[in-house]
Amino acid sequence: MSTFVGIGLGPIQTGIFLAGAAKGGFDRIVIAEVNDKLKNAVNSSHSVTINIAAADHVYTETYERVEAYNPMIPEEREKLIAAAAEASELATALPSIKFFGASAEWLKVGFAREPQRTRFIYTAENNNHAAEALQAELGDGFPNTYCLNTVIGKMSGVIPAAERTPLAPGAEVGHLVEEFKTIYISKCPGIENRKVQSLFVKDDLFPFEDAKLYGHNATHFLLGMLGKQRGCEFMSDLSAHQDLISMARQAFLNESGAALIKKYGQLNDPLFTVDGFTAYVDGLLVRMVNPFLKDQVSRITRDPERKIGWDDRSVGTMRLALSQGITPEIFAKGARLTALEIAGTPEAARAKLAELWPVPWGDEHEKLCRLMGL
Length: 374
Known about the structure:
Helix content: 40-55%
Strand content: 15-25%
CATH architecture of the largest domain: 3-Layer(aba) Sandwich
Number of helices: 14
Structural class: alpha/beta
Oligomer: single chain
Number of strands: 13
CATH superfamily of the largest domain: NAD(P)-binding Rossmann-like Domain
Shape: globular
């Protein structure tokens, strides 16, 4: 019997890994979820339904043979341990890697029952080193268990059940995900034998992680901040502000894109060519303002202190561009908007950046502040 185990029942899990496992023909799909209301709703029908936003409509897909258990309940934890023992593929989709420790406790017990089994674990926590963090928690006792990083360019969200089809009968929420299906994963021995669908292996994942953070995420955040200034509630509202979309396109293509191509062009991957990156930019800009995705500007622009951090999507993109001899004028405008929103005045913004950025303060810090007009 083939078994897939997912940890966390958010839209990344359901829209990518659970969907891919169902289409890959797993006999069992077992999910660990601490929300008992959601767990019970799924178990009432042993199925999950997601709403999928295409370019011109929303449709649903339902996946059967789904079981959900709460690892905090002893008898249900034992069921998860047994499933982990027989699982060949697993996926973590948790809010943060800080939750790995609790999950690894019961995973290790299950893995120890069949320590030589080959397992692929896809980590989807939006952290470039999530796989390494989970591997550290699991230890070295499972030689054929491989933790893999992912690059997920799929936009998704949780919505009230009243707005769309609920996740399961009786669930208070639904999942709305975009139709996009290309998810990159890192390489390991035997990965060609995976069953989960829509996963694409890259020999070196880091360039694609950079493209996601300093291209996709950076431009999404920039566009959100620009839209916020215009009073947009949903990202789709930006369709009425073509000047902002044009500005975001210039930043994406000529600042972050040009820097990424200079840094990774030697890989001979189509993405890191002018034509390939232009197609990537234009495709993403259409997807970012898809009216059927109902993506809120407030979601895109939340947690601004993190996003203006030294290595994150706003300032990190500026630093990448500068390292490649490119002046990130448009991203600097977005970073300025963010800093002023956090702190209020240019003086207070500089003081806040001094708290958020690494010490000692040096020439690079000053150059970034000058570009931001601070």
